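Bit of a strange request maybe. I'm writing a small parser for structure token strings and I need a real example to test against, not something I typed by hand. Could someone generate the tokens for this chain?
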Amino acid sequence: MFPTARPRPTKSHAEIGVYAALARCSDLDWYAFHSLRLRNSSSTWTGEGDFVIANPTGGLLVLEVKGGRIELRDGHWFQNGKPMDEPPRDQALEFVKSLMKELRRAGVETPPYGVACVFPDCEFSVPPTNGDLHGIVLGARDLPYLPDVLPSVFTAAVPPYRLPTNRKWIQQLNTLWGNTWVPSVRLTDRVNDAAERSVALDSKQYELLEYAGETPRALVEGPAGSGKTLVATELCRRRAKAGHRTLYLCFTDALARAVAVQFQDPSIEGVRPQATSIRQYAVDLLRGRGLPIPPPDKAFWDEVSFNAAAEALPADADRPQMVVVDEGQDFEASDWMLVEQLAGNRGLWVFRDQRQAFWTERTLPSSLETTLAARLQLQQRYRCPAGLAAYAECFASGDTPTERPSPDQVKLVVAAPEETKDRVRHLVDELRRQGAKPSDIAIVSLAGQSRSELYKLPMLGSHKLVHGDSPEARDHIVMETFLRFKGLERPFVIVCETSGTHLTQFATRMHIGLTRATVAATLVAHPELVAADPRLSLLQS
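Reply from user aminoacidic:
Good idea to test on real output. This should exercise your parser:
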């Protein structure tokens, strides 16, 4: 719904009522824009669509809302007893034709379209019989059941013509409507959906990608949720389309797997990009050379990138023409050595957020940093709702928040250590009861793998748990540590196991955990921690 919270300013109580009814249609994967206005080239008033509905798989529907008592007598239409200047649909028909012209002027393929009417103040059992209104008029008795009846009206009003090959027409509707909103995006929602990626990119991100076409090496910095991974993966796709061998590297296997699934999109043209974690890539290089792989312990993982750089680099002709590093703040010196050897003088783009750097001693080597002449910034955050983003920010900045976030976005559950598992299970049960799918939920532990009790569980009550790098992650609840879940996101995140003497850099852990949520985050914390931390006690007040 645009606007998301309430309708645009209007004196029409009828439009307010229709807005409320449309807001109940959340199960439809559609977009609804209230009061989309257009002006012609001479800046004189052209018209307004009361509600413009975009169905990505069906086309566009304009709802013309007529309040008051609507009647048809002797072939003439009346509103509250006064003759109407034109039949109910005519104004919307003129508007939608102008809207199609605007889309074509913007170079966008136009979708099939139609017009329907809503008479929200009129109760009737038999709708108007006019040929042009048959099956496309809704009344007061229909509004309570709008989620059920709107699809049939859409089908009756919008002809089944060929849809555009992408969804840029939806993005252009958003531009014409005048909002800076960008859909919150999960990586798993983007699999095999190149059109949705176009809707998600904002003007700043497009500008950055256009700049990338002329810039072989750059450092991009941005806060959590600013679209770094989105831009990084889109950059890989664009280079692949140009025929370049492209390698996407990150620190965690879970993020690498999610991106690798995206790169299986059959719409990707050119040389398909490769996505992997830096140390798994190092292991693959060593295996490719037939070198022995010892049992993977900490010492092995600490040295694997160095060993690959020293002994197993691919031939120059087989090396990537573009290396894209995501979550670069987590790479250590040996990882950068491998990156530097791979990239050589070829393309290299590095994306990072220093405020999410858990290992403060890990930095970009100065020898490499000087080669990244272009320094770019992504400022706008899109992942988290505003209240949740502001609350998470206090853990990054060290400031105490002065305003409590909405409980719909950030919630606190106080539980003793022995109660944590049951409380988390109850929270999952409640989310599922309210309609959340397993793939909407992540449980993020602030403890490490060896210290987390929940991380080891295959089941939580009746709910199956998988790790973020599991092939089943797209279909089930993910149970992860805060480090392994970096770069990923879910609508609902439960942050737990928040206490313990081993929890160094608590604020960084919390900032990472909170910023994984696209809709709401719930913190499960021990009473002592809540009492000692004003940022947590604020949620309790």
